[in-house]
Every structure is written in structure tokens, then in C-alpha cells.
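Consider this today:
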Amino acid sequence: MFEREFKVNEYITLKLEEDTTIIYVNDKKFEQCKYLLLTINPEDIEDYEDIQSIDEASERLDRSLEQNKRLIPPETEFWGHCSNLQAWVENDYDTRLLHRNIAFPLLKKLSMAGDLKAKKLFKDEIAERFSSGHETVMNYLKERNYLNYLNRKERLTLYRGMFEAGSPQVLKFLFDSGVLDDLKLSEQEIKPLIDSIDIERIRKSKEEIAFPLIEKLVTLQHPLSLEIFQKDIKTMFEKGTASQVMFLFNKSYLYRLTDTEIKNLVKNFNIERILDDKPQLIFPILEKLIILGNPLALSHFVNTLKKTFEKGTLDDLEFIINNSYLKYIKKDEMELLINPKNFDSLEKINDFRVYFVLKSLSKAGIMSAAIMLERKLLKKIESGYPNAHEYLNQNFLDLTKQQHKLCNQLEKINDTINYGKYIINDSEKLQLIKEYDKIAKKLATNIKTWVKRFYTTFH
């Protein structure tokens, strides 16, 4: 007969109840066990060698098999939990061996139940795992108030060690999470912590971590932090990639410098080094440089705009339009911006966004875009059922009252076909489609006649 109960030690018992494994502490129901089912690709085994805990494994390994709840029989799952808890106890309640959601609540429960070993290790495990640098665990311990089980002196000692270790990711968490604010440190207590930070180690991190940290150190008066911060800003602006320059603009780090320093940096900025990057970076940077007074930025902006139009990619054109970059082109030069041949790629794209792009370009005064918009729309309208009315409803063209009336007729027919499919028979449906196509062709002919007035609005 299958044994449905397993005693791990004098405090912990596991029971299989209705195919679910339940943990009991001192014979009182504590928690339902949950399992992690992880898949390791043998080809990537070396990538996992630095995993230090179940928490890290649960985030980095494939857990897709957990979707299949019947993959593991309840009895097998039960003995798996028994084995895990037995190993956890034998390894002195090492919280790295269980998921944080069970390890810390269970250790806390055991310490409250009179388990002397658990009581002794509870604070040590909190301190050790919080200083591990694993942000998910650190955040869990903070949010679930486990740090409150350490007294003020113990927390200060813990944070001092973390500051001295100097991991940029850990320092970022300490500043951002508010755990230091909770202690309400005095100036005499915070200064030694700040002075102990190795700023050179921080500088080696990615700018997304390094710059906010160094900026924080500047506000906290870390020795040499302001000088180092300004030096790194200048270096990145002068020699960094397009994404790094955009990072400086987006985070306003450039304005940490004096007006004279900014003016000189902008004036001497080597624009050529960013022009091979993607338009989504080039244009925002050039626009910033135009605003800040770079003498060559506008001409580079216009030339890059022309080159981007020549490529005719939908994403790039949509980006230009959405950010109103066409405002940098003079109206009398707008039509010269592009040749109809450059739209060949757009002509072949079957994407609804094309029509929005063409409409925007038409309104900006590009006649070739207006011509293509008409051609593509008429092609869709003339194709008849079932899409003609959908394209007309998007207001790509300013329809007359008569044209709107015809479009409404198309909609009504479409609704009858789709929502009345259990009422009308195939013969009736075929007749409605013929009527739809007839009205669509009539509408297309009407638009062809009328569209000349649409073009004249650009002259």
C-alpha cells in the first residue's frame, strides 16, 4: 500500500491529501507544496554553472513543462517534495535549496514552533540571501518585511558589508528600494558607507546602472564623484555610440555640465559617426543637436531624411511621420523630397499602416504619395467584397456626401452577409455580394472623377 505520509523531522510532516502534497508543522497544516519542473538543454549546460539557488534556476531555466499538470503522478510528486524537504533539513535549512516562497515562510514557522536550529539560522539566512545580489530574492525579503526581523544594528552591519563589497547591482537596489531610508541614517552613519564605495568598479558597469549610481553618489558627496561623473559624460558624448548619446539626452545627463561645456561639445560633435545607425536613433539626436545649435545638424538631418525616403521602408517612414520630422523640410522642397519610383516597395506592401503613411505624406504636400494613395485605394475598392468599405471608413480620402452614402450601403450589405448568415441562403448571399461589388465599382468610378479636386488642394 502506498504510504501517504512522511515525517521529515520532529517538526515537519508531509501528507498526500486528495493528490496534493501538504506541509504540516507540529501537526498543523502549513502550506500546499508547489513544484518547479525545469528543463535543461545539455548544449547550454555551461551557461548554468553559476546558478547559486533554486530561485535563480526558476528564472533562468525552461519551465514550460509545468503547464502539463498531469505530467507527474501525484505519488511521484509527493516523494519529490519529501526528498527536497529532507535535503533542506539535512543542509541546515539552506534557503538556496528551496524556492523563496516556501523556504522563508517555513523557516519562520519553524522558529516560532520552537525549532532551536531554525530560530538560530533564521536571521542568518535573511542576511545571507539579502546580500547575495539576487534582486528577486532581495525584493521578496524587503516586500514581505523579513528585514524587520533584524534589529537596527544588524541591518546597518548588513548594509555596511554590502557597500564594501561594491556590487553595482546591489548598490542600485539599496538606493532604489528605500531600505536605507527605513533606517533613517544619520550623516555620521551614512558617510562611512558612501566613502567605502569603489566608484571605479561602478564605472565598469553598463551606463544604465553606472550613471544613475554615480549621480546618486554626487548628491551624497562621494569624494571625486562629480569630477568623474562629468568626465564620463563628456567622454560618452564625444566617443560613444548613437544609443549612448541618446541615453545622455533622454536622461538629461548632458545638463550636468556647464553651459559653456555643453556648447563646445555640441559644436564639435562628430555627426558622421552616428549616420550609419538606424533612423530611430539618428533623427532624435540630430534634432537635439539642431535645438542646441550645432551648425551642421540641419543639413545632415535633411540629407538623412532624403536617404530614408529613398529606402521607402514602412517602419522608417512611419517613424518620421509620427515624430513630425517633415517640418524640417521647406514646403517648396517637399515634392522634390521623393521620386515616385522610390515608392515601389510601398506599392507591394499589404499592410494597413501604408495607407496612414501615404495620407500623412499627402497632407504634407507630396503629390506622388497622393497619387499612390489613390491608386492603392481604388484597387482595394474595385476588388469589391469584403474589404472595400473598411478602407473607405478610415478617412484616407475626404469623401463627398454621395460617396459616404454609397459606402454606408456597402457596410449594410456586409453586415447582412456576416451577421445574417444563419438567415440567408447561399443564393441570397451570392446576390448580395454581386450587389456589393456593383456599388463598389460605382464608388470607384465616382472617386476617379472627383479625386482631381483632391489633388488641387496641394497647389
Q: What stands out?
A: The CA atoms of residues 302 and 329 lie 7 Å apart.
